[in-house]
């Protein structure tokens, strides 16, 4: 009974964490882009005159989404048209099931803030991220609109191209830590290299990290890679969507931003690990240590994971508001002619180094 | 010697990554500078720096240019009557035909004429300022700095003689 309760609590925790992070990202995107462009950003929504630096815009936006008319264009596939945004959000959220948020050490008992520790975690997350193509493609196909269909085709080809590079960039990580379980990958990153450098993925796989960052941003379908959507002019697969069905696509984008940030923290930046922090406190390689209770250490780890995730969300938003959109041929060239060979070369180089070190 | 301007990309532009980092550096500097200024504002510091180039319009309107042409007014004589002698110069020169004047006889024989009706349709006015230049009596001016003209109906955009005379006859533009 107790185990089921813990699992239920974990599910609630993970859903709340991911969804509220996505909601806050909608606010953060407006405010951050405003600050980058010397503006002040959305600050008009107020409750009894209280503006709270624009945070109420999240509530205002969602109210607007819920109250608008749900329109299904005549001739559209009503069932698929309804199911597409659900699939899009569902598969994005289900990636979160295998992400280890941290561990909690209570009375010597370790509780992992991870819904399920699959022994094929990386395969699972790649599979779930691939499934998000279905949401995009069904939305375009079921709308019975040329523009939606073209947007969906662009989206599907872009996501397919970058998924391959993304998958291959993770092979290096799998080879080094020789496991597919995300929890064990995080544990392996708690070790030290040469006695002082934390064995984080970014130090062992810098090329893999850059490819994963680029491919991850392409997966979220936002500017440099926003050809499927092109909100400002070319409009994409959700042209025929209104109200909360559109809202789900919108939210899925931000969920994916949060997820890519989490995956980057878990796979390349040590997850909940803080350098030199162990369960009993800090042990520095130059001697000296700082003892603390295991509970405090585990809470610090969860905090560190949160800080890493927020940093990568910030980085993605910064890139989104800095770079212009790629042309379509540039996008394909970057994906197939540059990133894919680079990822493969990275796998070969990693293998060579591993063989030579043995 | 002029530095030769060229659109050709060199090697560092072509591999793109250094340019990406340069761009992110520029936007991040803006982000953190403005963020720091706004945080200091919360503690009542650094009021000299605005941290933005925009204006929060209804509360903090943008200062108008000194010679801004805004809503019209009709200047008054010392006794409070209008300077306008209904000569129709402004109505004639107005390219938008937005001025409508009906003249009547002035009781003062030295003045002869005065406007009975002086309507300006602000919905038609193109704010060119020709009426001000054409006026031989310096009666019509566009120096009120009132730019917030809006109405729920087309008729509401028409201002009459009373609206035009409703001011305290001060010089608005600074004299040089």
What does this structure look like?
The complex is a heterodimer of chains A (358) and B (176). With 358 residues, chain A is mainly α. In chain A, a hairpin with a 2-residue loop joins strand 5 and strand 6 (281-283). Chain A starts with a helix and ends with a helix. The longest helix of chain A is centred in the N-terminal third of the chain and has 35 residues, at 2-36. Chain A has one domain (71-357). Chain A has a three-stranded antiparallel β-sheet, with no helix packed on it. Chain A has eleven helices and seven strands. The mean pLDDT of chain A is 88. In chain A, 64% of the residues lie in helices and 6% in strands. By secondary structure, chain B is of the alpha+beta class. Chain B folds into two domains: 1-53; 73-172, Alpha-Beta Plaits (2-Layer Sandwich), CATH 3.30.70. Helix content of chain B is 26%, strand content 12%. Chain B has a three-stranded antiparallel β-sheet with strand order 2-3-5. In chain B, strands 1-4 form a two-stranded antiparallel sheet. In chain B, a hairpin with a 7-residue loop joins strand 2 and strand 3 (113-121). The model of chain B has no long low-confidence stretch (mean pLDDT 89). The chains are: A mainly alpha (358), B alpha+beta (176). Chains A and B meet through helix 1 and helix 10 of A and helix 2 of B.
